[in-house]
């Protein structure tokens, strides 16, 4: 996930950030709830609809496709943002890379017996429209556009056999490339820190679906193994800072992804990779990113969401639930607050 307010974290001139803040504060807020905006399929219904599109039997892989952890990607403004949103023509090249890396996972997984592939766009800076549809493996189902329920886990359901996350980035506060975690500086469930891959594993875990593979920089792969256990990981670059890394060429990354995906499917089929299970009720604690904490409207809107209680400092909240999907939906409502079309 990525959004425009990242500028602060990327070290852009402070004056630009201050001007951006001033502009945001003077524009009347769009307080339309998502359901009234375009019509949003409620998350349980979205899941049922996707289940109807899926084949019975076989082995289904759900691929979450983000961009910060792609081969050679190191900079948000030029590589992950289109010209139409103030970015660069280079974005097109990284859309191709994203599509290539997804296809590499599909080829590898298929070689190990996977039969169905659902791809969910996971990069928000472009409102979840990055994959080059006509170059994507023709057997994949692609979930594209925004708003969509539970953003990075839209439609995830118990018919899925394995989740994979490609182009992933490390957690907020870590030294990984463009590291962040949705709109949060911290996010824990029962005291356990979860990055974006971990949150998807938490939602899938409740459905009995394991997170089988994560690819991105060395910080992401190490922290995700520590968080979720010995899943398959593909390290595509070694981070030197949040915007510099020693990178592997795409062709090498694609080869590693094919091999990793094949191993991941075999290991799930052998019962080696287990779903993440946490004890209920899930006690969620989160602190909004500093740039949002300063934004009184964002802070107040999040504080008024159903079931959310303040606590733990400015911009920090608690939420308790017996449903990981409901936690995912809460996250979606927070995303809607900070990430408007
Ligand atoms: Zn992203």
3D structure, described in words:
This protein is α/β, with parallel strands linked by helices. The protein has a domain of 222 residues: 3-Layer(aba) Sandwich (Rossmann fold), CATH 3.40.50.10780. It contains 11 helices and 12 strands. The strands form 2 sheets. It has a 7-stranded mixed sheet with strand order 3-2-1-4-7-8-9, sandwiched between helices. Strands 6-5-10-12-11 form a 5-stranded antiparallel sheet. Helix 7 links the parallel strand 7 and strand 8. The two termini are 14 Å apart. The N terminus is likely disordered. Bound molecules: zinc ion.
Briefly say what this structure is.
Helix 7 links the parallel strand 7 and strand 8. Helices cover about 35% and strands about 20% of the residues. The chain has eleven helices and twelve strands.
Terminal CA distance: 14 Å
Record field, number of beta strands? 12
What would you give as the CATH superfamily of the domain at 46-184 and 193-275? Dipeptide transport protein
Which shape, going by the Cα principal axes? globular
Number of helices: 11
Percentage of residues assigned to helices = 25-40%
Strand content: 15-25%
CATH-assigned fold name of the domain at 46-184 and 193-275 = Rossmann fold
CA-atom Rg in angstroms: 19 Å
Order of strands in the sheet with most strands: 3-2-1-4-7-8-9
Mean pLDDT: 89
Low-pLDDT residue spans: 2-25
User: Strand-and-helix sequence, N→C?
Assistant: HHHEHHEEEEEHEHEEHEHHEEH
CATH class of the domain at 46-184 and 193-275: Alpha Beta
Bound molecules: zinc ion
Largest sheet entry: 7 strands, mixed
CATH architecture of the domain at 46-184 and 193-275: 3-Layer(aba) Sandwich
Pairing-aware structural class of the strands and helices? alpha/beta
């Amino acid at each position: 996930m990525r959004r425009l307010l990242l500028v602060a974290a990327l070290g852009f001139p402070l004056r630009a950030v201050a001007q951006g803040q001033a502009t945001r504060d003077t524009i009347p807020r769009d307080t339309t709830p998502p359901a009234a905006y375009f019509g949003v399929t409620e998350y349980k219904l979205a899941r049922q609809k996707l289940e109807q599109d899926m084949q019975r039997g076989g082995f289904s892989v759900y691929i979450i496709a983000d961009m910060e952890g792609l081969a050679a990607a190191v900079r948000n403004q030029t590589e992950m943002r289109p010209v139409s949103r103030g970015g660069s023509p280079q974005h097109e090249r990284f859309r191709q890379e994203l599509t290539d890396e997804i296809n590499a996972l599909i080829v590898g997984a298929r070689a190990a017996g996977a039969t169905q592939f659902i791809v969910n766009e996971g990069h928000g800076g472009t409102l979840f429209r990055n994959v080059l549809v006509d170059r994507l493996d023709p057997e994949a189902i692609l979930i594209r556009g925004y708003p969509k329920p539970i953003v990075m886990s839209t439609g995830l359901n118990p018919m899925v056999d394995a989740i994979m996350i490609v182009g992933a980035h490390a957690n907020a506060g870590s030294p990984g490339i463009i590291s962040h975690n949705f709109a949060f500086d911290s996010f824990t469930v029962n005291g356990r820190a979860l990055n974006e891959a971990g949150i998807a594993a938490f939602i899938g875990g409740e459905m009995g679906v394991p997170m089988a593979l994560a690819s991105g920089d060395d910080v992401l792969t190490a922290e995700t193994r520590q968080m979720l256990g010995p899943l398959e990981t593909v390290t595509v670059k070694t981070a030197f800072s949040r915007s510099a890394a020693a990178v592997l060429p795409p062709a090498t990354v694609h080869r590693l992804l094919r091999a990793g995906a094949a191993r991941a499917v075999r290991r799930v089929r052998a019962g080696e990779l287990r779903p993440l299970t946490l004890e209920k009720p899930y006690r969620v604690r989160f602190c909004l990113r500093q740039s949002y904490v300063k934004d009184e409207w964002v802070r107040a809107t999040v504080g008024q969401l159903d079931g959310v209680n303040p606590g733990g400092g400015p911009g920090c909240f608690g939420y308790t639930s017996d449903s990981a999907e409901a936690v995912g939906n809460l996250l979606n409502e927070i995303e809607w607050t900070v990430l408007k079309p």
